[in-house]
From TrEMBL, chain A:
InterPro entries: Gaa1
Organism this protein belongs to: Gasterosteus aculeatus aculeatus
The protein's assembly and partners: Heteropentamer. Part of the GPI-anchor transamidase complex, consisting of PIGK, PIGT, PIGS, PIGU and GAA1. Interacts with PIGK.
Pathway stated in the Swiss-Prot or TrEMBL entry: Glycolipid biosynthesis; glycosylphosphatidylinositol-anchor biosynthesis
Protein name: GPI-anchor transamidase component GPAA1
One GO-annotated biological process of the protein: attachment of GPI anchor to protein
Membrane topology qualifier: Multi-pass membrane protein
Superkingdom, natural source: Eukaryota
Signal peptide: none
Compartments (UniProt record): Endoplasmic reticulum membrane
A GO term from the CC aspect: GPI-anchor transamidase complex
Automatic annotation (TrEMBL), chain B:
Protein family according to the UniProt entry: Belongs to the peptidase C13 family.
Gene Ontology CC, one term: GPI-anchor transamidase complex
Single biological process term from Gene Ontology: protein localization to cell surface
Active site per database record: 155, 197
Record's protein name: GPI-anchor transamidase
Signal in keyword set: yes
This protein's pathway: Glycolipid biosynthesis; glycosylphosphatidylinositol-anchor biosynthesis
GO molecular function, one term: GPI-anchor transamidase activity
Signal found in the keyword field: yes
InterPro entries for the chain: GPI_transamidase, Peptidase_C13
TM region positions: none
Span of the signal peptide: 1-16
Keyword terms of this UniProt record: GPI-anchor biosynthesis, Signal
Length: 551, 389
């Protein structure tokens, strides 16, 4: 019992996969429609088009057009109230050429079974995430990102769970599970546990973050391996981008994960039939579910597929960092409440009041707004004047605005009243510290890794910066720990963790592409990392920069 | 010549059998019941509770096989497993893996189905307080000569049984329902079997006479399921009912196994939990109560292979059948509901045989704490001669 115990079906599947081994030029929409219909599914297509804010390296043009093809397998006896999704992104080239074949083979097998209680939707989306976003928006009748798509002709009920496949070769040595989604959202841990349990049952090697499971948890190397895996997951989560097509489902409260097939140099290889059996088992399990997966954790960090750290354990670590800020705020409040010391000539310093604090705040936020809007708006002007492509123009404008903000304190100090007072900077610091505490707290709730990484770098400087510390050294430290440099170091560290260290120049190019990707993600899918950093974290950091250069 | 020889052989055989027949006659009236009813309830719904439906259907199957007709069985199933969308073998419910035994079959008659299985309906069935429009198949039309088998299965806890994932019946409610049944003379003897977690807690509070109870696990223990079927994907049966079914497959309508054999079903080595039983409220010795007293509907029919001469020998036999002390009396109907007599009768000084014991002997012996049960005097039992059906 099970997929492809029939040798004829096995041969048919392998034939299908070999046929698809050649690179696909664009997406063969008509062929897909015909094939899915011949397998007994109800097939529909959706056209979408999207104007990019700036052309990225892959597309090299402003307009992205595509077609999604999906076939619905109706449950033979059940009412059409619930659905499951199996998707395979279809891109030109070798990247994911086997997944569609496996999907079609599974569709044929599933069609012959009577035990489906939910509709199964087999989705082949074009242009990866853009196509997936168009399909999801069409399915749920929302339009959050301003994309242009044709409405869906066929629907299947509310989606309970989804799996996305990425297979580049017809034999795999291991399967990698990708969980991180948009804005650091994760699917329910039960989905990961389900996958791992099935892998063990069938005997397929499975990994998370591309790292193998180890058994020696007590030894130092085993522990460091686990820490590395967890840090990889934290960095992926902090980036806020969906690391697989599944990442966009999570926003609609649909538990989803991506399964990637990895073909590395290993003796024991698993063929597509076994992967198909694994997927069949997972779909039968999801079919038996009576409600959405909600029993296990939604907030966790996995150090391996069998060990994880839940929110109850990692939040106190963040809480302790936040307490530093609150204590500093308390200290400042007490200092401000006590009467000011009289100066020698008996002149009492004028109470600066709240208004003087307002000026640096407004100016910092205006700078942040500039960082958010200017790069995209002035890309044509930049391209005219400098010999760079649009993507580079956007990124370099962003860096330029960021660096220009560093020059602010010297200019804005002239506008401030109450300058030169002890009270002035203390009030500003009090406001800044509380602002940072609230900001980091809210960020950590939504995307813990992002909040934690920002807290690690910003809290120490926020606590200790005053106008009285040595200027050059603390200026250097402040710049090094600013969000931009944190990102730069994270890029190098990320590559290091993945055991693919890069040279400085490559790392710099990677850094630029990360910034451009962040801006693009925000425009396309609503990722919150770029606006958060530009509009809130950067102004907050500028306030501390102001305090450092207070006169 | 041959006929004479045969007749003499017959006569000697009959006289030899007459002692045997008297014993049989004695046995016929030992239980005091004339009809059998069964109330079989499965209280849980959802696909993963497949095993509870399979439990109930296998007891239903045994009970039907041993003679109780559908009109005397009230079958309550809270969910429909055979036609569930997830059933890879539609219209079947299996109790053994590899699909050996389909307990759903062709002639299952479910009386209460789906959302009709509620605590209220269950209690109304037991006490008989149903609206006049209720069809006969949904009623428990028992009288005071009925032996009733009540089988409950589902998810339970300490003192309660869960119905349909939304409500519960407590052991106090159940005990009170049985007391109502006793006061309304709705049963002669009642066998209560429950297969849930902590099932022994459900019979702790019984206080009406002529009740015998069996449970699959003690308080604090879980009743476990038996085996999953990999093709269907769920567990098919609970352990206790699985071994109960195996035990019952050996019982045929003429078998003489008694309740003591039933208590030995599924010891701890097989069941993992410790089954328990309770016999202190039962007025007869459990060893004298046959399995078929409750599980089967045994007619008072003696099948003989000899030809019987319908003259003198018959009268002889007839004389032996009837109890001696009642021959001369004229018969009269017993007062239908002598409630006042029953309520105000006090303890007659008889000690109930047996106590609550646990098979497996883990030291759990509860002292009988019930002082307030009724005894039924002998003349009430033996006056009725008809067999209402």
């Amino acid at each position: 019992m099970g997929l492809l115990s029939d040798p004829n079906r096995r041969r048919a599947l392998i034939g299908l996969l070999t046929r698809l081994n050649a690179p696909i030029w664009g997406m063969p929409v008509d062929w897909l429609v015909k094939t899915m219909q011949s397998r007994g599914l109800e097939v529909f297509t959706q056209r979408f088009s999207r104007r990019l804010p700036f052309p990225d390296e892959d597309k090299e043009r402003y307009m992205v057009k595509g077609t999604n093809v999906y076939g619905i397998l109706r449950a033979p006896r059940a009412p059409r109230t619930e659905a499951l999704v199996l998707s395979a992104p279809c891109t030109a080239g070798d990247h994911n050429n086997q997944a569609v074949g496996l999907l079609l083979g599974l569709a044929q097998y599933f069609r012959n079974q009577v035990y489906w209680a939910k509709d199964i939707i087999f989705l082949v989306n074009e242009h990866d995430l853009i196509g997936m976003q168009a399909w999801l928006e069409g399915y749920h009748h929302t339009n959050t990102t301003g994309m242009d798509w044709s409405p869906l002709q066929g629907r299947g009920g509310s989606i309970q769970a989804a799996l996305s496949l990425e297979l580049s070769s017809d034999v795999v040595t291991s399967l990698d599970l990708v969980l991180e989604g948009l804005n650091g959202q994760l699917p329910n841990l039960d989905l990961a546990n389900l996958f791992y349990a099935f892998c063990q049952k069938i005997g397929v090697l499975c990994t998370t973050q591309g790292k193998l499971q180890r058994n020696d948890w007590d030894s130092v190397s085993g522990y460091s391996h686990a820490v590395q895996t967890m840090m990889l997951m934290a960095m992926k989560q902090a980036s806020g981008r969906p690391w697989g097509d599944h990442g966009l489902f999570l926003r609609y409260h649909i538990e989803a994960a991506t399964i990637k097939g990895i073909n590395s140099f290993r003796q024991y290889k698993t063929d597509a039939t076994t992967v198909g059996r694994l997927l069949e088992g997972m779909y039968r399990k999801l079919n038996n579910l009576l409600e959405r997966l909600h029993q296990s954790y939604f907030f966790y960090l996995m150090s391996s597929l069998s060990h994880f750290v839940s929110i109850g354990y990692y939040m106190p670590a963040f809480g302790l960092l936040g307490v530093i800020l609150l204590l500093r705020a308390l200290d400042l409040w007490v200092q401000l409440a006590s009467p000011p010391p009289r100066t020698e000539d008996g002149v009492v310093d004028a109470d600066p009041g709240v208004l003087s604090v307002l000026t640096p705040l407004v100016i910092s936020h205006l700078t942040g707004a500039a960082l958010y809007t200017l790069p995209i708006h002035f890309q044509e002007m930049a391209v005219e004047h400098f010999p760079v492509s649009e993507t580079e123009a956007v990124v370099l404008t962003a860096i330029a605005v960021y660096t220009a903000g560093l020059a602010l304190p010297h200019n804005t100090n002239r506008l401030l009243t109450g300058q030169g007072t002890e009270q002035g900077w203390k009030v500003l610091k009090l406001v800044a510290v509380l602002y940072l505490a609230v900001l980091l707290g809210c960020t950590a709730l939504i995307n813990f890794s992002l909040g934690f990484i920002l807290a690690l770098t910003l809290v120490p400087v926020a606590a200790f910066v005053t106008p009285n510390v040595p200027k050059v050294l603390s200026a250097f430290v402040l710049v090094v720990l600013s969000p931009a440099c944190t990102l730069l170091f994270s890029v190098f560290f990320f590559q290091e963790l993945q055991e693919m260290p890069v040279s400085f120049l490559d790392g710099w190019m990677l850094y630029l592409s990360v910034i451009s990707q962040g801006i693009l993600d925000h425009a396309l899918y609503g990722s919150l990392v770029y606006p958060l950093v530009a509009l809130l974290v950067y102004p907050c950091w500028l306030l501390f920069w102001n305090i450092l250069f207070w006169k | 010549m041959k006929i004479l020889g045969l007749l003499s052989l017959l006569a000697t055989h009959l006289s030899a059998n007459s002692v045997n027949i008297e014993e049989n006659a004695g046995q016929f009236f030992s239980s005091g019941h004339t009809n059998n009813w069964a109330v079989l309830v499965c209280t849980s719904r959802f696909w993963f509770n497949y095993r509870h439906v399979a439990n109930t259907l296998s007891v239903y199957r045994s009970v039907k096989r041993l003679g109780i007709p559908d009109s005397h069985i009230v079958l309550m199933l809270a969910d429909d497993m055979a036609c569930n969308h997830r059933n890879p073998k539609p219209a079947t419910v299996f109790s053994h893996k590899n699909m050996e035994l389909n307990v759903y079959g062709d002639d299952v008659e479910v009386d209460y189905r789906g959302y009709e299985v509620t605590v209220e309906n269950f209690l109304r069935v037991l006490t008989g307080r149903l609206p006049p429009s209720t069809p006969r198949s949904k009623r428990l039309l028992s009288d005071d000569r009925s032996n009733i088998l009540i089988y409950l299965t589902g998810h339970g806890g300490n003192g309660f049984l869960k119905f349909q994932d939304s409500e519960e019946i407590s052991n106090v409610e159940l005990a009170d329902a049985f007391q109502q049944m006793w006061q309304k003379r709705r049963y002669n003897e009642l066998l209560f079997i429950i297969d849930t977690c902590q099932g022994a807690s459900m019979y702790e509070r019984f206080y009406s006479p002529n009740l015998m109870a069996l449970a699959s696990s003690q308080v604090g223990e879980d009743s476990l399921s038996h085996q999953p079927d990999l093709a269907i994907g769920v567990h098919l049966m609970d352990r206790y009912t699985f071994y109960l079914l195996e035990f019952l497959e050996d019982i045929h309508p003429a078998s003489k196994s008694n309740m003591n054999d039933l208590f030995k079903v599924c010891p701890k080595s097989q069941c993992v939990s410790t089954p328990g039983h309770r016999t202190d409220l039962f007025l007869r010795d459990p060893g004298s109560a046959l399995i078929t007293d409750f599980f089967g509907s045994v007619r008072k029919v003696e099948i003989t292979m000899e030809t019987v001469n319908l003259t003198d020998p018959i009268e002889q036999v007839e004389q032996n059948f009837v109890n001696e002390d009642l021959q001369k009396e004229s018969y009269s109907y017993v007062d239908q509901l002598p409630v006042s007599e029953i309520i105000h009768q006090t303890l007659a000084g008889e000690d109930a045989p047996g106590s609550i014991v646990a098979v497996g002997g883990n030291g759990l012996v509860m002292p009988p704490v019930f002082h307030f049960y009724f005894t039924v005097t002998r003349h009430d039992v033996a006056t009725r001669q008809e067999e209402p059906d």
